[in-house]
Amino acid sequence: MSAPSADVPRRALVLAAGMGRRLRPLTESVPKALVEVHGTPILVNTLRRLQAVGVQEVVIVVGHRASDIRARIGARHGRLAVRYVEVDDWATANNIRSVWAARAWLDQDLFLVEGDVFLGEGLLERLVAERRGGSVAAVAHYGPDNPGSALRLGPEGTVHAWAPRAGPGPSWTKTVNVYLLDRGFLAEFFLPAVQRRIEAGRVQDFYEAVLEDLDPDPVRLRAVRCDDLRWQEIDDVADLASAEDSFPPGTALYDRVLGSHGGWWRHPFADHAYLVNPYFPPDALLAHLGRHLGDLVSAYPMGQRPLATLMARVSGEPADRLVVANGASELITKILPRRGLALPVPSFNEWEARTPPERVHPFLLGPPDFDLDIDAFAEHALAAGCDLAVVVSPNNPTSRAVPRADLLRLAERLAAGGCRLVVDESFVDFHPDGRAASVQDALFGRPGLAVLRSIGKVYGAGGLRLGYLATDDPEWVATVRAALPVWNVNGFAEEFLRVLPAYRAALEESCARVRADRDVLYRALCAVPGLRPVLPHANFVLCRLPDDAPPAPVVARTLFDAHGCLVKDCSNKAMPDADRYLRIGARTEPENAALVAALSAVLRPGRALSRSAGPG
After folding, report:
1. What is the pLDDT of residues 483-504, one digit of tens each?
2. Do 67 and 158 share a structural domain?
3. What pTM did the predictor assign?
């Protein structure tokens, strides 16, 4: 191990005296700090992180089941010298009492860490890197999934106040309960403020309450954002479950995330892989669903026919032309070909995955733009005797669209040969021309043409699993409906459809913002040396990596491990040099800028790749 940086404090103080009543019955037989996350006690993990950053000595304040902690940790832990301070009134006092009991050890720069925080890599290192010789507090976003004590920040990131719960406004942040405090701050402000409360008998205070007295001028404490890093404060069994999910055993989080196919909101990374609208649904729509939560959970939803009536108001198509599904993916399994499927590739993998291999007739799209030659594709489909052709427009992963006039001409040629055309338009609202690029308004009188759409992507509601098929073929509509269960869409999705027409203007505005952000992202990616982005028509950009760059699986993993950015590695796509391509979803402008900066850093000569980099 190399010598620690001069900015790394030699000492750390860990507060581990509490019982953890909300973790009962676990904490009846083990102290809270020794509760395990996949076999690793919280305190052991903390000591490992402190040792890794270069701390040499740890002072642990103990109380509840103190002897258990002493027996488990001992006088040394690895290279760390361990000291103990015991408080006998832990059951009736709060953690300000623990700090006061350890005051003799607060005579030098130190980390202050609460004993119920399970720390991930990089958090302590970030505090060291950004301390600038002063005192810093680790903070993250404040929200319903991340509540608790909060710090209010000034315009320069200085800490102005503390509260046991966040106040109104975006200036409030969640404290991670990890601090790096310098000697001057401790001696001149922190310890005197603690002493005043102790002498006033306020032993029930949190130690952070002293920050209520903090004068931001001169600057005494700055906040360091750690939203993109992994950590978990463990107060109850739900927190413990979140920690076990965020810190999987034996498997890198990157692999765990990819294998789960969703549920990613629990993890602190920027998701540029799943392709959704970050500006919809609006708060008012979500509040409406929240007000009806009990009914939506307990009541059965409606069946297919009335659902089609609701979808008609959203889609603009008559109800008798619609099939409503639990996501567009459910429909793929119900409209498979009898003889053969003609599919331009690369494309959405579900079409190939759900169709028997002997019936799939791929039509390879070529770089650099992967545009579709509709005449060649029509000949390919008809020569193979296909009864179904699918064109995703704009395509996934290429983000390229087929012109509307070409799609209509393709439908006519295929229909003449007995082949139905399904156009998957799940991303058409993000096309530069918006819905003017759609063929949906041309369905009437063309029974061989159908449109498939995912509601989740455009409406930012992937968790609701909504999609529809529209066609002017009533027999086919009846056949597909008959293949679906009676209740294939849940009550939340039903109510979402019911109120959605009232938010049409908000949707159009949100799509316009996505298109603008996408264009800025594309221009920024074009400026990355050696990177070759494909001009996009959807809310994502396909990029070919520089020739001297590592393959896409390595770059994608490194972006995640080192920068907290998840992108789609296209190495499993049917395309030439597939392991040279990444698909990058557009999110908000700050998130896009951070992604471009991270990608530039990963592709820079002399870059440091993730230690776990490998096929993803």
Report:
1. 999 888 999 999 999 999 999 9
2. yes
3. 0.70
